[in-house]
Records
---
Amino acid sequence: MVTRRELLVGAAAFSGSAAASFAFGGQKVAAREIIATPIAHDTKNLFLDLAERPAALPCFNGHTLPLWTFQEGSLYPIVRVKLGERLDTVFKNDLPRAGEYASIHWHGLRIPNDQDGVPFMTQQPVEPGSQGSYSFVPPDTGSFFFHTHCNTSEHFGRGLIGAIIIEGDEVEPPDAEYVLMMKDWRVSPDGKFLPFTTDEGAAKAGTPGTIRSVNGESKAVFKVPSSANVRIRFYNVDATRISEVGFEDAESAIIAIDGNGLEPLLLPSWRLGPAMRVDFLLRTAPPGKTIRFVDYFAKEPVVLAEFVSEGPPKRTDAFVATPLKVMPFPKVDVAKAQHIPFIFSATATGAAIAEFDKNASGIHIGSLCLAKRTFWAINKQAWPGMTHKDLGPPLAVLKSGRSYIFDLQNTTPNSHPIHIHGHTLEILSSSMPHVPPHRADTVLLRPNERIQAGVVGGAPGKWMFHCHIIDHQEAGMMGYIEVV
Ligand SMILES: [Cu+2]
């Protein structure tokens, strides 16, 4: 069991103290777990229209840029579904380029494999001018998102991202809620998109943006009720940026990671790579005062947002974060689990990259999804390069319902947020001073770090497993896991 004292030590280590160390292991005992139960059985209909929509976002300094978005009038649509509700989605591909096909991946949702939205692997992609559809009942509460899964550096770079929130995890509703989507944009000084990916970036930490933003603003300002408990759903939806976010001089707690509720963590900050999310409960400032939300990972801390308190105080009690309800996840049987190593490496430092058996899976992938070059590999396999027309064998084969421990080893000097489709990882231990056990669909592997992550084989099918720094994903650090 993680005690309060251990958490505080962890917080010190997490803040960069070299002297403190924080070893953890075993299962977290959550004595106060309340299981979330379905609250609706209706069907919700969603229409998405992928198209170019020029916009002058506040962060663009007056310039209008040709964004690609999912809906007219919203930079990032926020889709809300109640636990137990079916979501029926129709989407139209109106992207302005011949051959720019699309499919929608629902990041973090443990839905059937044929709804996972990976072109050629789980579905045929949708050509411009055509429509596609999805229908599923999201099984878990929390903060998730959706995006396309091909030519992703450009699609992310132009803004083709939406949030999907599955409601039903709150025991005590907060006084207000805010969704913060952090993304950088690669824009030249004269207001044009720069190339979304570069070889130099792809071979190192990823191609960085030139303008920071939250919800399209350089510094988002939220007017919030005073002395209130508000929920902040923070998303790192950048293609490249690692961040470490927290509130300056405020009482707050981390209540969910990648949508998964947990015993509230009183850490001063949380580190997120691309595609990772964290939910905070924040006690806002007294009337007229402001709390700053800061990225501490930059050389100089950067203020991402401000929460300005207005109106009479809502609460006078001491700040205590009530845990969210949790989902009844299958528990990893650590004693019986089979260990599977995954070594994340640069291709230049590894042995020769394994040649794919070009007919191994019979899956033909489109040229849009093929890497132009490979700098990265998982277990010495790089996602097929330009000359590979067919997908190779899976990185691992899991049996549905069986327990596994992924031994994730980063042998590179770069961080990699590793994402698995259709599953939730149980982070058990790390070789580095780190964070408490938690569940996540995307886990940040720091340079030379080794993490043990438990997983129970989920729904049958082929599930992508890749780095979510989009340049790394598209330059080899991607593969798939087959569940049978
Ligand atoms: Cu990576």
Note: The helical segments are 4-14, 152-157, 199-203, 470-474.
---
Amino acid sequence: MSEFRTVARLEAVPSGTMLQVELDGEKIVLAHVGDRVFALHDECTHEEFALSSGELVGGQVTCALHGARFDLETGAPRALPAVKPVRTYEARIEGEDIQVKVG
Ligand code: FES
């Protein structure tokens, strides 16, 4: 059964930043943009590099290793060299917490 689970305090991820969290052994990058939070599998689909080391620009994350970009909402690749999407998760802000839906 899928359910939202708290993975971080909102204050740990100020707007414009990212944070890697681990949930059930899965590394997830939280990205806070404006009043929204996004959650993606924290691994570039090009060469398994942590996206949380990259840069947030608008609604996209840029991989620090070779510059691939991914849409935060859908995980779709927006710039080479990545061609495969990153897995995304439903995320929400609940009071002072960030929650991600798993399962
Ligand atoms: S590992 Fe991310 S672009 Fe190459």
Note: The CA atoms of residues 36 and 55 lie 17 Å apart.
